[in-house]
Amino acid sequence: MIRINLHDYHDELRKIEIQKRVVKSLSIVAVAIFFIIVSWLMEQAQLDSVKSETNQLKSQVAALKGPVDKVKEMEGKQKRLQTIIAGIENLRERQLPASTIVGDLNLMIPEGLWLGGIVQRDLESLERKRKGFPTIMFGDPGKKKKRKRRKGPPPNEFVEVTGYSLTENGVAEYMKRIQEIPYYKTTFLYQLSQIYIGSHAVHKFIIYCYMPEKKPKKKKSA
Predict the structure, then answer these.
(1) Are 31 and 95 within one domain?
(2) In this structure, is residue 180 part of a structural domain?
């Protein structure tokens, strides 16, 4: 006669059921951990992307700082033109008004160029202060002797224009434009050099415009 121990059988069933529940619970926990890890990785990727974009924006802002400062400086230089008239000294009545000279030079300015100063000079002061100034182009010994005998200061026949340009072509274009001003007999570039304003290279220039003193007409005798 065969006997079956039902108690042991039920115990085995309970153990199997417990194992299934444990496996199921562990599976749920594993899946939850997996999704947590995936979510964390996605957040890290998004965070890295945001950091990268932030760094790019910072680089772009830093790159724009120089040009923005340059534009502000150029605007400041342009405003100074309103006060440059005071730098043109002792203009004679038979010469053009200072406002006309400054206005014409200002109207000729191309893009990317700004003026630093406009000053009227005489030939003798330029001979002393400007090395290599081509005085031979503007006088002869006979006239120089006459100037020495003449009383009063020498005539201010030169307009000294100083400024800055972002390119050499800008200086060449400005020269071309002011050479068309009819009351200048000669216009020439005296000096052109590259300097740095902050981290940006610009071209500093000195231009001279020769405006001979107009001699008063002699009255015809009757």
Answers:
(1) no
(2) yes
Does residue 172 belong to any structural domain of this protein? yes
Question: What domain count does the chain have?
Answer: 2
> Which has the higher per-residue pLDDT, 98 or 110?
110
- Give the pLDDT mean for 55-69: 73
Give residue 193's domain range: 70-210
pLDDT digits (tens, 9 = 90+) for 125-170: 777 777 767 655 665 545 555 555 555 666 778 888 999 999 999 9
pLDDT in tens, 11-41: 777 778 888 888 888 888 888 888 888 888 8
Q: 174 near 113, Cβ under 8 Å?
A: yes
